[in-house]
Design a protein that fits this description.
The protein has 382 residues and is of the alpha+beta class. It contains 19 helices and seven strands. It binds iron/sulfur cluster (SF4).
């Protein structure tokens, strides 16, 4: 097997009681594997709680009985009693795995870290660049019918990142605009069964030279109609209402609602101008964020036709991050790193773990004809 991982994967460590939104305190369903369940019965005395008081069998699965949306093993300091009393080896498979997100494509195993974990976002924010690496072992690979498609999609992803990483003077929105064009070309090739990696590399290498990108960037600057963006932001923020699960996050969503229902377009335009200036220190992070997202999310097997909509949905998630950050900035007149990490991980929690939320975002984008390069320009606040 080949292993393709982001470098942060190797030295990731949970920040435990220092975490601002402990994953075991979010009301998430935690499934326990049979082996762990038996151990929890065996060590009931050390744990001080009978297994059946906190674990339940339901429809063939064993789940944690949450108390006030928290795992009962989480103590008042947000530390896990299983780890404290028995050791980390006794955690269930789900808890050992998160925030690692593995995906297997035949003989390649790709592993990413979920951005719903604030520690992952913090690491991504403090890195100069995101690096990826390969490893290999003797584990036999299962039969896989999509190897050719995987290799093609993987090559396209590398081209996107290559174009994305060119020149620091190109705006994020232009990079996303171009990336959509690359996907468009690649999807067309897959549709016509012309998956020629060398050809697409040659063509796109010429088409998206740095000089051409800079020229496109200057043509696209200022093209977004802020009035239209304002109207769309009012619509898209409402998608968050039914998926709010954390009290402090609910407050932020309520505050966004208030901002858009009670504020005016004029006020928004002034706030947005100041906010964009406050975002400047984060521009390097945006490159990391998108390079990471492209690698982690731009595989769509077997139906590559869906990849463009997925790309725009990720941009919509990024847009929601910026809306929440805008309102936080308006309230505090500053956007500190801690708040921003909390916002990014909170919105990522909704986009990464709630399919219903992703579907509702996609629906809003389709209704507004935004599954397009122009849609990306509208969604990108930088
Ligand atoms: S969200 Fe991440 S840092 Fe926080 S408790 Fe979970 S794994 Fe640890």
């Amino acid at each position: 097997m080949l292993y393709f991982t982001v470098d942060m994967y190797h030295d990731f460590e949970c920040s435990a009681d220092a975490c601002p939104s402990t994953c075991c305190g979010l009301g998430w369903n935690i499934d326990i594997d049979e082996e762990t369940y038996q151990k929890m019965i065996e060590y009931e005395e050390q744990l001080g709680i009978p297994a059946d008081d906190w674990l339940v069998r339901r429809n063939g699965r064993i789940c944690v009985k949450q108390v006030d949306s928290r795992c009962p093993m989480l103590n008042e300091n947000n530390l896990c009693n299983v780890v404290l009393k028995l050791g980390p080896d006794y955690m269930c498979e789900v808890c050992k795995l998160y925030p690692r997100m593995p995906a297997q494509y035949g003989d390649v195993y790709e592993i990413y870290l979920a951005l719903s974990c604030p520690e992952v976002v913090a690491r991504l924010m403090n890195k100069n660049e995101v690096l990826f690496g390969f490893g290999e072992d003797d584990t036999p690979a299962p039969e896989y019918p999509y190897t050719r498609l995987y290799q093609y999609e993987s090559a396209v992803r590398t081209i996107m990142v290559d174009v994305f990483s060119r020149s620091l003077n190109i705006s994020l929105s232009t990079r996303l605009f171009v990336s959509f064009g690359i996907l468009d070309r690649a999807v067309e090739s897959v549709r016509n069964d012309q998956m020629d990696i060398d050809l697409i590399q040659r063509e796109l290498g010429i088409e998206f030279s740095e000089e051409k990108l800079l020229c496109l960037d200057s043509n696209l600057r200022g093209i977004v109609d802020e009035n239209r963006r304002y109207l769309f932001l009012r619509q898209i923020q409402s998608a968050m209402h039914e998926y709010v699960f954390l009290e402090s996050f609910a407050e932020s969503v309520h505050r966004i609602d208030e901002y858009f229902s009670q504020g005016s377009l004029e006020q928004y335009l002034t706030d947005m101008q100041d906010f964009k200036a406050a975002l400047e220190p984060y521009h390097a992070f945006y490159l990391n964020y998108w390079v990471y997202r492209i690698f982690a999310d731009m595989m769509e097997i077997p139906d590559y036709e869906k990849v463009q909509e997925k790309f725009v949905c990720i941009a919509a998630g990024f847009c929601l991050i910026q809306i929440m950050a805008l309102v936080s900035y308006v309230d505090k007149r500053t956007l500190d790193q801690e708040d921003y990490i909390y916002i990014i991980s909170g919105i990522s929690r909704m986009t990464e773990h709630y399919e219903g939320f992703r579907n509702s975002l996609a629906e809003k984008l389709r209704e507004n004809n935004l599954i397009s390069p122009v849609g990306l320009l509208l969604l990108t606040i930088e």
